[in-house]
Amino acid sequence: MQNxxxxxxxxxxxxxxxxxxxxxxxxxxxxxxxxxxxxAQMALAKGDVTPLLKWVTxxxxxxxxxxxxxxxxxxxxxxxxKELADMYFYETLVRIHRAGEGAPYTGLKPxxxxxxxxxxxxxxxxxxxxxxxxxxxxxxxxxxIRERFSHASHNMKNQDDSIxxxxxxxxxxxxxxHYVEGLHGLIKGGVAHHHEE
Length: 197
Hints:
- This protein has helices spanning 2-20, 35-46, 61-75, 79-100, 116-127, 131-157, 163-189.
- By secondary structure, the protein is mainly α.
- The chain has two domains: 1-24 and 115-197, no CATH class; 28-113.
């Protein structure tokens, strides 16, 4: 049960951080299924670098244009050259994008399942409605708070019966209050980007 609650909190916290962020943040930008690589695939297919420049700062534009031109020049030579050139370009684009946000780059991650909360955030943007995302996160946070409150409240009744019972209460109290504190910190401050865990 504890692992399930921790997973639920992690999913909720990531999405809450995205919603409260002052910058656009895609936590899955370093995956092959993420929006950066998807944009790059379309740009290479059309031969137009313009849609990619939004993912980098003005100072980094020329690096992307140069890498894009090199990739276009090589990818027509053979299927193997295309695969290698495309991957080189994806890696270059994502690395520069991550560096521009102050986030570490640890390589492109193929086949990574996108976090459900992040997927809902993307769907919200695609559909123009955030209701499903808000409802999902609100319910997840409510469940997390209620579960921890119930556990701490139950243990509080027996806290003076023995040292062991007292320690059980303290452990559940710390879990409850830290969970609430963590949620409040995210809501109040947010984060600029989801970094590697």
